[in-house]
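Input/output pair, single chain:
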Amino acid sequence: MNENDIDLEKRRFLTQTTVALGTAGVVFAAVPFINYLKPGAGTLEAGAPIDVDITKLEPGQMIRVEWRGQPIWILKRTDEMLETLTELEPVLADPDSDESVQPESCKNQYRSIKPEIFVAVGICTHLGCSPTYRPEVAPPDLGKDWLGGFFCPCHGSRFDLAGRVYKKVPAPTNLVVPPYWYETDTRIIVGEERT
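Output:
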């Protein structure tokens, strides 16, 4: 076969067809991998804000919901509970919440938008245990100075009823207050903040 017998047009067509089919094959093979990297519907839903109805929440009662795989506490504080917050400031590590995480709308002594409703992530800032809600005053196991709050049984960290950490405990900062806002007086949207 000599050089004159080679059909260059046919060769060019076959080369272009092979490249096109190869490219299509690579794209076809890559689609499942690209789809695998996209978050699933469950993941997107888990990060979405949640709507919490607090209509039936009684004074002194706390409910637990879940947002982003974390426990969220919603506590309806009584007037007596609110009065203890100022009283405890001398024994708190960060009474003004300067070193802690909370929305700007919650940077106050109550650490909440409305004084009577406290919303927090129910995870200790030390090593991630979940503290227990201990509203009773002066129980034998926590001492006569205990005015109610949250106690972490894992390493003994203590938090007041605004989630502010006591001095000389393992937890370095106050409990985290997630972003939230009130859709109505009895509906809280946790997971986003509105001004």
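Strands lie at 50-53, 62-67, 70-76, 117-121, 132-134, 149-151, 158-159, 180-184, 187-190. The two ends are 82 Å apart (CA to CA).
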